[in-house]
Design a protein that fits this description.
By secondary structure, the chain is of the alpha/beta class. The protein has helices spanning about 15-25, 75-90, 110-120, 130-140, 155-170, 180-195, 205-210, 280-290, 310-320, 360, 380-390, 410-415, and strands at about 5-10, 30, 40-45, 50, 65-70, 75, 95-100, 105, 200, 215-220, 255-265, 265-270, 300-305, 305, 320-325, 335-345, 350, 365-370, 395-400, 405-410. α2 (about 75-90) runs parallel beside α6 (about 180-195), α3 packs across α4 (about 130-140) and α5 (about 155-170) crosses α6 (about 180-195). Keywords: Cytoplasm, GTP-binding, Ligase, Magnesium, Metal-binding, Nucleotide-binding, Purine biosynthesis.
Length: about 425
């Protein structure tokens, strides 16, 4: 059976949600395997826009189903709200989703902690304030709350009381909502989720089903924001790479394809190194034409030219076997397009950074390529061919607009030129 993972090949915001939504028609299960509500995946059904922060980007009116895997951290309030929004237009859609009881929960305490920590930092990370980092921190320090704990009221209360004491001591009593009140809130959110038809089912119980059908794995953010291999500390707190499918019981060796999604240029939200960043009027024009504002935060995204060393790094780290290029139409009409082809690091020109630290000290080396009028222009085909030759990974699909159906294969594009 077909198994494909879709991951971000840059610093996130590449358009993964739209790509997953496009591919979803060919898969029975769409599985989100990492991240939390700090990710914003935008999809369109007809002319109506939906932003999923937690839900896998299934086709709400299709036959496919969505699964939220144990590598995620889930804000139940946000999850309930997303299902309710879809249910207004697609009654009963909640029954298309299942959540692993092993997922860790993002609590109101985590959001408070996120804001307190960011305010304390001499150099802010640029966190979204959604509580993702503190939730993953509690997971690692063994203070976290899992969804399954909500089905054992005694254990839930004990764990919340223990966590409350620790947080109140560390943060000098700055947390609101005592344990008993929080336990009641979580139980109500659990009940509402079940009322909406969402199932609580573990990956162990789903193992046979997943292996007997087609599965599309949906990643969050991008490889360069990965906790282990991204531009640390300016990263997210979970896995952004294809190996995150292990949280659903799969190995990357079981994948038929790892599709990396990239923009025809590069963007980044928040702080951290960005070697190919451009702050000219051209970049401002790209930001406005591309509507480059965060789906989760609304913050303006930083704009840069396509960064091939970073893309090569992502391809190696996440084992990319194909590429999907998005937003090439945003660059329509430019006479020339710059591409960062290598880095100068300590006086040495390198095609691929050796470590994540190299991004902090890299000086970009550029080439200029001819621009294109539209994505049907032969110069755009040459641009894609240049990327493929430089990265040694084929581009298979092109996205040229925000709507789900505004995609085509590279071969079809060639036939139309």
């Amino acid at each position: 059976m077909k198994r494909v993972a879709v991951v971000g090949a840059q610093w996130g915001d590449e358009g993964k949600g739209k790509v997953v939504n496009y591919f979803a028609k060919d898969f029975e299960w769409i599985v989100r395997f990492a991240g939390g509500a700090n990710a914003g995946h935008t999809i369109y059904v007809g002319d109506k826009k939906y932003i999923n922060h937690l839900l896998p980007c299934i086709l709400p009116d299709g036959t496919g189903r969505g699964f939220l895997g144990a590598g995620m951290v889930v804000d139940l309030e946000q999850l309930v709200a997303e299902v309710e929004v879809l249910a207004k237009d697609f009654p009963g859609v909640g029954t298309k989703f299942a959540v692993d009881p092993e997922v860790f929960l993002v609590l109101p305490w985590h959001k408070q902690q996120d804001q307190l920590l960011e305010a304390m930092r001499a150099e802010p990370i640029g966190t979204t304030g959604r509580g993702i980092g503190p939730a993953y921190t509690d997971k690692a320090s063994r203070e976290g709350i899992k969804l399954c704990h909500l089905f054992d009221e005694k254990m839930l209360t004990e764990r919340l009381e223990n966590s409350w004491v620790i947080k109140q001591n560390l943060y000098r009593g700055q947390f609101s909502m005592p344990p008993a009140e929080l336990a009641g809130l979580l139980m109500r959110q659990r009940d509402r989720l079940l009322e909406l038809g969402v199932q609580v089912t573990g990956a162990v119980d789903m193992a046979h089903i997943f292996r007997s059908t087609s599965v599309l794995f949906e990643g969050a953010q991008g490889v360069l924001l990965d906790l282990d291999f991204g531009t640390y500390p300016f990263v997210t707190s979970g896995s952004c790479m294809a190996h995150g499918v292990s949280s659903v019981g799969f190995s990357t060796f079981e994948l038929d394809d790892v599709a990396g999604v990239l923009k025809a240029y590069t963007t980044r939200v928040g702080e951290g190194p960005f070697p190919s960043e451009d702050d000219t009027d051209v970049a401002q024009g790209i930001r406005e034409r591309g509507k480059e504002y965060g789906a989760t935060t609304g913050r303006p995204r930083r704009i840069g030219w396509l960064d091939l060393p970073a893309l090569r790094y992502a391809a190696i780290r996440s084992g990319l076997t194909s590429l999907v290029i998005t937003k090439a139409d945003v660059l329509n009409g430019l006479k020339t397009v710059r591409v960062c082809t290598s880095y100068r690091i300590g006086g040495v020109v390198r095609d691929v950074p050796s470590t994540s630290h190299d991004f902090f000290v890299a000086e970009p080396v550029y080439e200029e390529l001819p621009g294109w009028r539209t994505t049907d222009d032969v110069n755009f085909l040459k641009y894609m061919t240049f990327i493929e030759e430089q990265v040694s990974v084929p581009i298979t699909y092109i996205s040229y607009g925000p709507h789900t159906d505004e995609m085509e294969t590279k071969s079809r594009l060639i036939m139309n030129i």
